[in-house]
Amino acid sequence: MGTLVTLHLPPGSPVVGLPWVITIGGLGGDEDDDWDPVVCGPYERDHALALARAVVADDDLMAVVEPMMPLDGVEAIRAEIALARDPASGPDPEEADAAAAPVLEEAPEPAEVRAGWRRISERLTH
Taking the model in full, what pTM does it have? Predict the structure, then answer.
């Protein structure tokens, strides 16, 4: 059985609505772990968690599920770095609009993942 690592988000966190990626690699220590991690995504958070959980369920792998920050330039990246350095200057999580996404019990089917990609694309382009 593998390991799944992700962020613990407070209810209503706006991070839930971001695209998420999965990085899958070996748990370390074995000669079989001498390979480059696989990074896949973007996914909606619930899809990423369910897919990662299914992949590591029966294998000695580690999956890290984390949000992508779709930032459109140097200044946007610098502003996000400044926010990360001083979290007190960011929005109050209690005032966030997004609700926590439900956790899927089973991995989504490929058609569901593609539908999620369409939703992510729509959010990123509008």
Answer: 0.76
Q: Is 12 left (phi over 0), alpha (psi -120 to 50) or beta?
A: left
How far is 80 from 18, CA to CA, in rounded Å?
14
DSSP state for residue 103 in the 8-state scheme = P
Q: Which of 51, 46, 6, 52 shows the shortest CA–CA distance to 25?
A: 52
Structure tokens at 53: 């959980």
At 69, give phi and psi (nearest 5°): -105, 95
Cα(101)–Cα(17) distance, rounded to whole angstroms?
8
pLDDT: which is higher, 46 or 92: 46
CB of 54 closer than 8 Å to CB of 87: no
13-27 per-position pLDDT tens digit: 888 999 999 999 998
